[in-house]
């Protein structure tokens, strides 16, 4: 081997994680580029019409509601209409940008969880698995959806909390709420953390709605009613008026959707049942004195609470497993355990994406998928209870999460 060859090999060996990061980014962007011309039903039926209304209304369109997404998303779409992009390209480029933010957030969380430099193997692997996840790619580059936006800020919130930066953590949760109501899937673990660790204040939680309000103020200044900030999400909870919406949870065994009268009967029942199960989880956390400052405990508990919300709340879409899929990937990398849980959860989500985007696959019906998903939830609950009981006594150890106050 010549000296030049040796230097090349030494350079590659020294910078292998960085080379992997660049390669994965190029590969992921190439795959997304191949999906840029794909039109989903959501784009044809909703997103395209929203774009046209905002484009025609100009800045005045911020004074009234367009679509059923929150105000900050509408503000961003208005800004995009000022740029030289077609509607579908703009939607997808926005989501692809946040795919990168999401993957960087995953890298930061794993880096802090395993106490390794950000450009080491595991954090870069987290970036790679998230950025090249088929469902993440389908969500942004094919579906033109924006789930990456709210989940990216959730990961940044988790990372900030791991660093003991409480104020930034709750501000990030507020930004996440400004984009999607599904941030409620992660809130239970922060409530658990608040009660069990006593390292944050109830006042920190006020930063969440405060941040949402601040992000909505530009529309209020344009004449929008202040009440609209809260009314949008209240209206969203009744959107569709179906018990389940292609999500393979418990309710998939019952129906493909109920009429309005049954929906209003079932909705409070589903909320009460979810609150009961999450309350039992809190009891276990407190009874076993679980150390949620331990990164592995935190990620496992976050995965379980998100899974519980998806499984028990009504009107869940197939896309609502997005946060859970990402959290399970991060948990597996942090703990080096339960690889199969993350794989199966992501495959179940993939089935939902394929069903919606590409057609009706009767070989695996929603009900049969629900058998797998409910079984996976039961096993995840078992793992949560078992591992929490075993690891709960580790509170005497030096915690992973830093304790300095914000």
Task: Explain what you see.
The chain has 406 residues and is mainly α. It has one domain. The protein is 70% helix and 1% strand. It is built from 17 helices and two strands. A two-stranded parallel ribbon has the order 1-2. The C terminus is likely disordered.
Largest sheet: 2 strands, parallel
Radius of gyration: 22 Å
Residue windows where pLDDT falls under 50 for at least 5 positions? 394-400, 402-406
Tell me the count of domains.
1
H/E element order? HHHHHHHHHHHHEHHEHHH
| Overall geometry | globular
The overall pLDDT, averaged over residues, is 89
Number of alpha- plus pi-helical segments: 17
Q: Write out the strand line-up for the largest beta sheet, numbering strands in chain order.
A: 1-2
Task: Give a quick set of tags describing it.
disordered C terminus; mainly alpha; 406 residues; 17 helices; single chain; two-stranded parallel sheet
What is the topology?
Blueprint lengths: L2 H12 L1 H19 L6 H17 L13 H11 L5 H28 L6 H11 L2 H9 L4 H16 L3 H14 L7 H11 L4 H20 L6 H9 L7 E2 L14 H28 L7 H18 L3 E2 L4 H14 L3 H20 L7 H26 L15
Parallel strand pairs: 1-2
Helix pairs in contact: 2-6, 2-7, 5-6, 5-7, 5-8, 5-15, 6-15, 7-16, 8-9, 9-11, 10-13, 10-14, 13-14, 14-15, 14-17, 15-16, 16-17
